[in-house]
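Something for you to look into today, if you have time. Just paste the record in under my message, thanks.
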Amino acid sequence: MNKIGFASTLKLFSIIFIFILFFSSGISAQQVAGNPPAESRWVFGGDFGLGFSSYGSNILISPQVGYKLTPAWEAGVRLTYNYYSYKDRLVKFSSNNYGGGLYTSYVIFKGLFVHLENELLSYQRAIITQGSVVDKERIAVHSVFIGGGYRQYFSSNSYASIMILYNLNETLNSPYENPMFRVGFGFGL
């Protein structure tokens, strides 16, 4: 992703984050005093990521199911779908990638959390010869993400989050570029 695309993506995520904070303060003010609801240990949700530049786009959708081991510690499984496209004067390429993995996150202080994730992705890469795509091949790409973020709670069982992650196993075959931004949500049942 070029610098202009990264700046645009960062600006988009900043606007979304400010909207989440503004929206959630209104919800918090409307909560009725009384006994807190019984909290479920199961958490459902997921996140999405967007990246756009003059050379292409990267769209990520990841539903997840987690279990609260403690009130601050959550672990679970994720499914991942990733659409990736690239184009320049000579090469035009797009791929649909899918996979899943395990994650864990731990709230360290009032919504601030750390996150660790291990993902295996079936990735379709382009084989380029003399400036044009001649074939596609599907390979397995292993990624290890580490990072953190902030969760804004709407109630004891629901939240919106924004996080920044780094792929410790970034290679030429990885569809992700460091750093990676995600916006997500979660709710308990």
